[in-house]
Amino acid sequence: MRLLRLVLGCLVVVPLVVTVATNPVFVADGPGYSPDGSVSGQTVVTGTAFVVVDGDGTVEYRETVRDGYWDVDPIPDSDAVVVSTVTRSPDRLGCSNCVVQRIERIDPTTGDREVLYSEVTPGERNVEWHDVDRVNETRYVIADIAQHEVETVDTTTDTTVWEWSAYTALSPGAGGQFDGDWTHLNDVEIVRDGQYVTASLRNHDRVVFVNRTSGRVNESLSLGTDDDHSILDEQHNADYIPEERGGPAMIVADSNNDRVVEFRREDGEWVESWVWQDDRLKWPRDADRLPNGHTLVTDTNGNRVLQVDRRGRVVWSIETNLDAYEAERLSTGDESAGGTAAAELGLDSRTVEPETPLERAQVAVESVLGPRVVNSIIWLTPAWMRLPEFVTVLVSLVSALGLVGYELFARGLVPRR
Ligand SMILES: [Ca+2]
Ligand SMILES: [Ca+2]
Ligand SMILES: [Ca+2]
Ligand SMILES: [Ca+2]
Predict the structure, then answer these.
(1) Torsion over CA of 403, 405, 406 and 409, rounded to 10 degrees?
(2) Nearest listed ligand to the Cα of residue 143
């Protein structure tokens, strides 16, 4: 019986020791990030905090004033950025089941902040503005995920000056629950000299082009089809690259497919022109083509922000524990604004296949559960806990329960039948 105690005791302790000893060090709350590789310029990252980090890993600014930070965009010729923020605290707000959303201008060099626009929104989940795009000093386009709308607001008059509703254009049968998270409209961008606004409908696996004059969806330009996951599977942060920079092309974080993908317009069709993933990339939610041809990727469930060069090599990455939503390289323009299409640059694609038995088992388990369930589990567990840590902690917990049960039984504290 001493042997059983010893075995169970080891099964409690050893997995925990292995987990602690082999875990990557998450230093987001520490003095700095330890980057792998080096780059010039500052990177701003949003998620559960708002962080500005230098290429060498020094944290220049970090705040958690709000409960969540979503899209961030640089402001041309300024040190400040525009951020979509959210506060959840019904008691403090005097309303139940609601959030306060804000478009804020934050200057990380001084810590100054200014709320440009704000709204109280009913609900707590899937209602936060994931994207806000700056049109000019006073006007902003909002991806209104709760209302399934794109709206332009004037921050000087607090009025909506333009809006488009997905209800006017899309089939109720596509996407999520029609009376719930139907579209999950998570990204907007004004493109083609202002002729169109793109709207990323995550739950429809589709990015649509809305004519800003007529309000109609240009069906022939739409990218992706509901439930055709060979094109997109619940994407985020689609960036349009115009003809003058090698497009028209769309670079997209193809989240549930664990890849970053680019499509180029050829003979009136979107054709896949570049794809990148490595064996760590998990539920990426942003990809920006930088002016130097590299791509800045926010790897939400892989817990890192990384930079991929033209040959597909990771030349820089930082670990994060922020449930990172998106990143911007400051002074390179908004999203992919200064970037060129992959086909024009001749970028090398990279994909991975499972090799070891463990990797194949992981893929098999994930395909049974489905990417949405898998990513929800990873998202809900702490940032340091990936599949190996999940398994080791589970073994330790089950063994601890077994040991406690055995001791209770051995001491006669559990009635014998
Ligand atoms: Ca952005
Ligand atoms: Ca934006
Ligand atoms: Ca982007
Ligand atoms: Ca970005």
Answers:
(1) 160
(2) 2
Q: Residue 302 has which token pair?
A: 């892989």
Tell me the pLDDT tens digit for each residue of 116-151. 999 999 988 899 999 999 999 999 999 999 999 999
CA distance 6 to 4: 5
Distance 332 CA to ligand 2 centre (A): 14
> What CA–CA distance (Å, rounded) separates 190 from 144?
15
- For the chain, give every domain's residue range: 38-345
Nearest ligand to residue 197 Cα: 2
Secondary structure (DSSP) of 381-410: S-TT--HHHHHHHHHHHHHHHHHHHHHHHH
Q: For residues 16 and 9, is the Cβ–Cβ distance under 8 A?
A: no
How far does residue 327's CA lie from ligand 3's centre (Å)? 8
Ligand nearest to the CA of 133: 2
More reliable by pLDDT, 381 or 93: 381
Distance from Cα 275 to the centre of ligand 4, integer Å: 17
| Gap from CA of 343 to ligand 1 centroid (Å) | 23
Determine the distance separating the centroid of ligand 2 and the alpha carbon of 73, expressed in angstroms: 5
Q: Which ligand is nearest the CA of 186, by number?
A: 2
Query: pTM for this structure?
Result: 0.89
Supply 280's token pair. Answer: 């760590």
**Domain 38-345 listed as CATH 2.130.10.10:** yes
Spacing, Cα 366 to ligand 4 middle (Å)? 28
Q: What is the DSSP letter of 122?
A: E
Q: Which runs of E-coded beta strand occur in 3-111?
A: 36-37, 43-46, 50-53, 59-63, 68-74, 81-87, 98-107
